[in-house]
Amino acid sequence: MDLEKLINSGLKGIKPYIPGTPIIEVLKKYGIKNPIKMNSNENPIGISKKALGKAKKLLHSANIYPDPSNRKLVNTIATIYNLSPDCVAVGSGADELIYYLAMVFINNGDNAVIPEITFPIYETAVRIMRGNIKKSKMKGYKIDTEAILNTIDQHSKMIFFCNPNNPTGDAIGHKDFYDFLKKLPQDIILVVDEAYGDFAEIEDFPETVELMKSEFKNLVIIKTMSKSHGFAGLRVGYCMANSSIIELINRIRLPFNLNYISQEAATEALLDISFYNKTIKTIKEGKKMLYRFFDELGLNYIPSNTNYILVDTGFPAEKITERLMEKGILVRNATPYGFPTFIRVSIGTKRQNRIFMKNFKEIYLRIRGNT
Fold it and tell me: CATH assignment of 49-272?
C-alpha cells in the first residue's frame, strides 16, 4: 500500500511539533526522578486550590459525558469580558481552536500570513487544510505590522498574530495594534493569540476584546488557561469573536471536546483572582531575578512580556541544554525557532530559579573557558 497516494496532500512536508522534553525522558535517560522543568512555560506555583478541590470532587463523575455546550464555562468567560455567551467558544487548549479556525476559513489554495518567527502550530493548521503560508519579515525580534500588510495578497484569508509573540517574548502596544487593524482589509480574519497576554508588562497592551466588540468584526482573540491559571495538563483554551464566527466554530467543534472536570475546574480557576495575582507576582519577580543574573554574565536576552526569557548563550544551544539536563534541569533549545545559540528559560519559583542559575553558571563558564 502506497500511503503517499492516499494521504491528504496538505500533510506532505509537515513535521511533528517538538514540545519541551517531558520529565519521563529525563528519568529514562539519567535516572533523575524530580527534575526542574523550565522548558514549557508552565505555571511554577501549580494550580488554584479551589480549582483542584473542584476537580477532586468530580472524579467520581468520570463515567458521565460532559455538557457538550460547555455552558457554565462559556457563561463565566462571557461575564468576565462583558460579552454575550454566543461570542465565546472553548477548546481543549488554544491549539484546538487554532485548528478549528483554519478549518473554518482556509480552502485549497488560500493563504494565511504569519510572522517569520512565531508559534509553529499556525502553519501546521493551515497546511492541513491545503492552504499556503506567507511569512512576513520581522524587525529584528519584533513583529513588523507594515510587513504583514505588505505580505497580504488576493488569496489571503487569515493572519495569525501572536501577542506577546512566542518565542521572542516581544509585544505590540494598543496604538500600533489599532493602527494596524484600521489598515487591514475587513474581509481578512485576524486571529490574535494572547496565550501570554496576562504577563505583558508594556503599559498599553491592546484592549482586543473591546476592539472586537466595538469596531472589528474580523477580529478573533484566543486565550489559554495553561499559563497563568496552571491548566497545561487539563487543557483549556477559549476564543472570543463576533457571534457569526463562533457559530461557524461550533458547527465543527467536536462533541464533548472539553471533559467535565476541566469545564468545572476552569470555571473555579477563572474566579480565583488571588491565585491569578500570586502567579503574576511570581513571574514578575522571577524575571527580574533572571535578568540580573544574565546581566552579570554579560549575556544578551530579549526583554520579555511572557513567563519565559529567550537568552543568547553564545554557544550551541544543544550543548547547554544537554548538560543542564544531566543536572536534572530542563530548558528549551531554541534552535528549531531559528536561534541556534539561544535557550528559552521558563520562569520558575525562587528555588527553581536559584538552582538553574547555579548550574547554568557553572556549565556556561566551563564551556567559555574551553573555547
Answer: 3.40.640.10
CA 195 to CA 222: how far, in whole Å?
7
C-alpha pair distances (Å), 360 with each of 42, 55, 301, 323, 333: 20, 37, 15, 9, 14
Which amino acid is it at 103?
M
Q: Delimit the domains of the chain by residue range.
A: 3-34+274-369, 49-272
Q: For residues 102 and 220, give the distance between their C-alpha atoms in angstroms, rounded to a whole number.
A: 12
Helix ranges restricted to H, 31-86:
49-58, 71-80
Question: What is the pTM assigned to this prediction?
Answer: 0.94
In this chain, the answer to whether the domains covering 3-34+274-369 and 49-272 adopt an identical fold is no
Classify the phi-psi angles of 225: left when phi > 0, otherwise alpha if psi is within -120 to 50, otherwise beta.
Answer: alpha
C-beta atoms surrounding 275 within 10 Å: 22
Whether the upstream peptide bond of residue 164 has omega within 30° of 0, thus cis, is yes
Q: What is the pLDDT of residues 242-294, one digit of tens each?
A: 999 999 999 999 999 999 999 999 999 999 999 999 999 999 999 999 999 99
Helix (H, G, I), strand (E, B) or coil at 195: coil
Asked if 184 and 199 count as a contact pair (C-beta separation under 8 A), the reply is no
For the domain made up of 3-34+274-369, give the CATH fold.
Aspartate Aminotransferase, domain 1 (3.90.1150)
Query: What is the pLDDT confidence band of residue 134, given thresholds at 50, 70 and 90?
Result: very high
Number of residues written out for the chain? 371
pLDDT digits 0-9 by tens, 218-244 = 999 999 999 999 999 999 999 999 999
